Amino acid sequence: MMRIAVTDTMGSEHKFRNYVSWMEGADRNIECVRLSYANGNAGLLSECGGLLLTGGHDVDPGLYGGETGDPLVTGIDPRRDEFELHLLRDALDRKLPILGVCRGLQLTNVFFRGSLVPDLERAGYQSHKSETDDSEYEHEVSVLDGSALRRIVGCSGGRVSSSHHQGVARVGEGLSVSSRSADGVIESLEQVSEDHFLLLVQWHPERMRDAGSPFAAGIRNSFLSMVARQTRELKSTLKE
Predict the structure, then answer these.
(1) Any idea which residues carry the catalytic annotation?
(2) Measured between alpha carbons, how far apart are the two ends of the chain, in Å?
(3) How many domains is the chain partitioned into structurally?
(4) For a Cys-Cys bond, which of 50, 56, 157, 216 suits 227, CB 3.0-4.6 Å?
């Protein structure tokens, strides 16, 4: 059994279940473990082979030197920020595979001393938001040659489902840009090697209409491959 730590979206059970279905739908031997400050269960990360950081509300701008009190930055939850930053530190120390989606990308970029664009439209970019909760805004992304994402998806670009009003401003230390949208917004960051997996995507692979797209299934399968390796190593260590 592979166990994957999945952070609670803290506000939408339906959206959280999308992540679980996406992961567990790949293999009956996968179990997703919901982690949240409300449950106080960060310690369960030690029983998991990977960490999935989910989407949700905006990251506290105070964490990256942004303007506090900005009316366009909403839903700030300092307890969630603190809890997930702690999980990130622990996961990196344990050398766990990490996959960040939307807010997960933004928080991880801040963790590595990066900063965010508080609102893309105000900064002059086109809207990357869905019009309603039931619709998905889709756009093209271009994948950089030589990136790990390029090897994972096996193509130079594709169409993704996206719903965000913030984005990366200053790239965090040690992270590399691996894709952009047509208007120049950074759509993914990475820190991937043969034995290290940290992939961050701004789009929502867990709810893409084309579930078989390499920008959904390919990313998930690459993450799960590394989780499987980590799980084997964890079991080996426990036997010793």
Answers:
(1) 102, 204, 206
(2) 19
(3) 1
(4) 50
